[in-house]
Amino acid sequence: MKQRFGLILSWYPTLNPVSGKRCKWLRFRFEMMRDVCNAFVKNVHKTGGKDHSPSVRPVNQEANPIKGAMMKRLLSFVKNTTKHLPMFVLILFALSACASRSYMKVNYQLPNKIEDKPAITEIRLSVVDQRTNPDPLSITAREKLKNFRESYMLIMAPKGDTPVAGVYDLISLFETVFRKRLDQMGIRVVDSTSSQIPKLEVAVTLFQLDLRDYKWYFRMSYTAMLVKDGNGLIKETISGESERVDVPGMDDAGTTVSEVYADLINQLDISILLSK
Q1: CB neighbours of residue 120 within 10 Å
Q2: What's the pTM?
Q3: pLDDT of residue 191 exceeding 60
């Protein structure tokens, strides 16, 4: 049991690397509980209920049969508890590892199929927030994700490449992924006020995560418009939604967002947009 317990304690820092102080406190408490239980059970096995060590007071069962019976039950309970204690501790560690983060993980992967390279080599990019409700979480979702500070950790893992991670606010998140898509097509994003350079305007109109009946629901919508010579030529609206069961111990909120986020971003055919 000692080996199993030590293995679980060695796992815990990797399960929850963010909560440093709580990790140390829990580790100290469970180590202390392990030592006490091990010493108590070892003493019971050694004495066999006859030769008591000084740490355990003798029980006169003839003078007090009720107390003796209670002690027998207590010893049996301690034996069974210490036998399954590592499993209980592992469950507690897993639950504490799922403490609400200040950020949400969003996985995005560039499309495998590279779109036809357009004649345009430079473009301006603008991303604006046009949501009617600026809060990305509903009331119930906010209660579950109490520490969320509207920051998003973007994890991009193209095939054969090392994941690139960064933490952004919502608008910077959209701007970053669209820059990556344009760069994949060989189009350089420039900071210019010249109307001669085409401009891709992206407006985020909906980004909402909700929690109802132990299920996560996510809805997202945005519009993309190509502007040339100061005139909006074409406008396209992309929207979608996803849902996922909330499983304790899993990052289902971020997974629910990621499932539809990448699809909706890649759904916009930029090459067709630029060719019109």
Answers
A1: 19
A2: 0.63
A3: yes
